[in-house]
Design goal:
single chain, alpha/beta, Rossmann fold, 2 domains, 5-stranded parallel sheet, 34% helix
């Protein structure tokens, strides 16, 4: 193909500058050139400027939003590839209207295991005071706080999907009692996994740690709000490695500011990357990680390899792998 006829592919949000080394992009050379962006666009205008001449965009999960207002200003865009099974940041109706194909690029089968591991890392850091003790040692303070424990305490799971089941299994290894609630949970389903189904109110009132593991949708947005946070024990923690929108941002900030709950462990945020002036960064009762739950070395490598195959398949056959709703 003549160089002038080659399509343009943009790889977005490659924060570690690893995308080109984790997959064989050379197989796409007969069809397109590849450009990598290692930083997030500062605003919508910059995003549109970056992509206005691009034919194919690869989006890493939900790092960059593609609403109708953006898509309508990208006249050359013909294929949008997203890693993962779902991407709530892509307006699929607008893509259909604008005749932009959307393809999923599934990651490793054990990607949920990485998210579960990150959840326990946050829980242990909160309960064992790891982050605060680390910082205290660097500042010359010895044992600023006592360590908490997990044995005999209650883990409350909001959702019992693949990750929720993994969480329950590990909690029982810590000799914790596990409570679970979701809109469609039944005692029979819970008992299969050795956990106890309770009402939403009982879960938030009883749990020492509430961990959120459910899909974000219109019905689950702000699932955890002021009511639920006010029901929690003042010694309890809330942890979220799923989607930020499941917890109401202002309600959580208020609960943390006034000490209504003991703290929070968060791997997902309402705006990513998290702005340097975000109030969460000024609180000392939080443990924060930059959306690392799915971003394991093995996982990101697998995602990029799947992206290459999805694009190659589209160039060769026009076929896409549909995103789940």
């Amino acid at each position: 193909m003549n160089a002038q006829m080659l399509k343009k592919i943009a790889i977005l949000d490659d924060y570690q500058s690893l995308a080109l080394s984790l997959a064989d992009w050379s197989v796409l050379a007969p069809y397109a050139t590849v450009q990598v962006f290692t930083t997030a666009a500062k605003n919508q205008a910059q995003l549109i400027e970056r992509l206005k001449e691009v034919d194919v965009v690869t989006a890493m999960r939900e790092r960059t939003a593609f609403g109708a207002d953006v898509l309508e200003q990208l006249p050359k865009l013909k294929l949008l590839v997203s890693t993962g099974q779902r991407n709530r940041s892509i307006d699929l109706r607008a893509c259909e209207r604008l005749k932009i194909d959307v393809s999923a690029a599934y990651g490793p089968k054990n990607s949920s295991a990485s998210t579960g591991e990150m959840t326990w890392a946050l829980i242990l850091s909160l309960v064992k005071r790891i982050a605060r003790s680390h910082q205290a040692l660097k500042e010359g303070h010895w044992q600023p706080q006592l360590s908490g424990s997990l044995k005999g305490h209650r883990l409350g799971l909001v959702g019992l999907g693949t990750i929720g089941q993994q969480m329950a299994k590990i909690a029982k290894a810590f000799d914790m009692e596990v409570l679970v609630w979701s809109p469609n949970m039944t005692p029979e389903r819970a008992s299969v996994h050795g956990v106890q189904a309770v009402s939403k109110q009982v879960l938030f009132e009883s749990a020492d740690i509430v961990s959120v593991h459910t899909v974000l949708s219109d019905s689950t947005r702000d699932l955890v709000g002021a009511t639920e946070l006010n029901q929690m024990k003042p010694t309890a923690y809330v942890v979220n490695t799923s989607r930020a929108g499941l917890i109401n941002e202002s309600a959580l900030l208020e609960a943390l500011r006034v000490g209504r709950i003991a703290g929070a462990g968060l791997d997902v945020f309402w705006q990513e990357p998290l702005p340097l002036d975000h109030p969460l960064l000024g609180l000392d009762n939080v443990v924060l990680t930059p959306h690392l739950g799915y971003a394991s070395e093995e996982g990101i490598e697998s995602y990029h390899q799947a992206v290459v195959q999805s694009i190659l398949r589209w160039f060769e056959t026009g076929e896409v792998v549909p995103l789940k709703g």
